[in-house]
Design a protein that fits this description.
This protein has helices at about 30, 50-65, 100, 120-125, 155-165, 195-205, 220-230, 235-250, 295-310, 310-320, 325-330, 400-405, 410-415, and strands at about 5-10, 25, 35-45, 70-75, 75-80, 85-90, 130-135, 140-145, 210-215, 255-265, 280-285, 340-350, 365-370, 380-385, 390-400. It is α+β, with helices and mostly antiparallel strands. A six-stranded mixed sheet has the order 1-6-7-8-3-13. It is globular and about 60 Å long.
Length: about 425
């Protein structure tokens, strides 16, 4: 695929951020995150060739989400200086058609639809970049690259949907109130500028990995839930199948640990608004004896109980010093344990209603994570709703050896479908 850059510019908020809001402190939950990125792409089958509407509405949206137009400062705060976000326009050169791209497991393996390289955002300390790419067929992709330091899945989803709502209305649109407050009163930060960059290097090595999409259709999930018997959620049912297949293929001597982000907004007392900006989630971790991996009823009950116990007090009591994921992967001195600890990292963007995101020319035909993820020996799974809202697309990243075993698992074959197109 060949992509030609049309323009690259900086989009700033439409209104100036007041001086008293210029510093957004990072909470402990922000600091706990590996300094990595969220990259997600939306495809539309018809779109205008002029981006003026998108630029104007992006500027208006950034006035509500002003920290995203700022710069990270010493892993302690965000300078809400209205520095702006990178906005790239590009043309996909024929004969590549958007329909061909949508069939791929790796949607954009070379990162040509992504607005910039991650190291560029680290160098200028920016938080958000966007690329709009036009296809000759009349389709369009919009790719978002968020820096995770102040953006979790809920924050990203709310920003994207808010931008769409504003873009659909010439008068600026109406969006839900965005809540930006000092989260350090709830989750006090570390008082130094140490970052989790070392954990990033350990978690994501340069080992070659594959990414494939496995689609669990709504009817298959319903059948699975009925078979399990205790009517787990869609996430719990799909988790059980994927975990079982991964565990069955694990190598002798491995200690396989599952990590799951849990949104805390509705679990706090009192609850926090859904529109609250920041990393307001915690990561739970667990594993089970190998002999239990095919007992889906037992797994779904246990994972349900584990997630249900998470609330604000749980986070404060269980993790008073933060750094949950770092402690889960290291022995405390920055080096891997002598045991072969591997992570099964699964996160869900389901139920965020992303497929309702309309910028003025209809809803997306596909939403997908994008970018080449070198997970090393770890396994990374991202879950997204299918377009009908009933099924789940599981984007699975693992080594080729693990993938060869995973896609031959009987339950994966029974409940998921996947294309051989690469």
């Amino acid at each position: 695929m060949e992509v030609s850059i049309i323009s690259r510019e900086i989009t700033k908020p439409s209104s100036t951020t007041p001086n008293h809001l210029r510093t957004q402190k990072l909470s402990r939950l922000d600091q706990m995150n590996i300094d990595t990125f969220i990259s997600i792409i939306f495809f539309y089958d018809k779109a205008p060739k002029n981006s003026d509407q998108l630029k104007t509405s992006l500027s208006q949206t950034l006035s509500h989400y002003y920290p995203l137009a700022g710069q990270v400062k010493d892993h302690l705060s965000v300078d809400c200086n209205d520095n702006g976000v990178t906005f790239v326009e590009a043309q996909v050169v024929a004969p590549i058609d958007m329909s061909n791209v949508l069939k791929r497991h790796e949607i954009d393996p070379e990162g040509q639809l992504v607005p910039c390289k991650e190291h560029e955002m680290l160098e200028d300390q920016s938080i958000l970049a966007v690329q709009v790419s036009y296809f000759g067929c009349g389709g369009m992709s919009i790719c978002f690259l968020f820096r995770h330091v102040i953006v979790d899945a809920t924050t990203a989803a709310n920003f994207i949907k808010s931008w769409g709502a504003i873009s659909c209305n010439a008068d600026g649109g109406v969006i839900n109130d965005v809540t930006i407050f000092d989260r350090t009163s709830i989750f006090p930060p570390r008082d130094d500028s140490a970052s989790s960059g070392g954990a990033h290097e350990i978690l994501f090595s340069s080992s070659e990995t594959l990414k494939k999409r496995f689609t669990f259709e709504g009817s298959k999930i319903s059948a699975l839930r009925e078979k399990i018997g205790n009517w787990p959620t869609r996430f719990e049912a799909v988790f059980a199948v994927i975990w079982g297949a991964v565990a069955a293929a694990k190598r002798e001597g491995d200690d396989l640990v599952a990590t799951i982000p849990v949104n805390l907004r509705k679990r706090m007392n009192p609850p926090l608004p859904d529109q609250c900006i920041g990393n307001i989630h915690t990561i739970i971790q667990t594993n089970w004896p190998t002999e239990e991996t095919t007992n889906y009823s037992s797994i779904t009950v246990k994972i349900h109980k584990l997630i249900s116990m998470v609330n604000g007090e749980y986070v404060k009591n269980a993790h008073p010093n933060g750094w949950i994921l770092y402690r889960a992967t290291n022995n405390g001195n920055g080096r891997l344990d002598t045991i072969k600890r591997r992570l099964f990292m699964i996160s869900s963007w389901c139920n965020l209603e992303l497929y309702k995101t309309d910028f003025g020319w209809g809803e997306p035909v596909l939403i997908a994570p994008v970018g080449k993820l070198n997970a090393g020996d770890n396994i990374v799974v991202g879950l997204l709703d299918t377009i009908d809202g009933e099924g789940i697309d599981a984007w699975v990243t693992m080594s080729k050896a693990d993938m060869d075993k995973f896609e031959q698992d009987s339950s994966v074959i029974t409940y998921a479908s996947f294309s051989s197109f690469v």
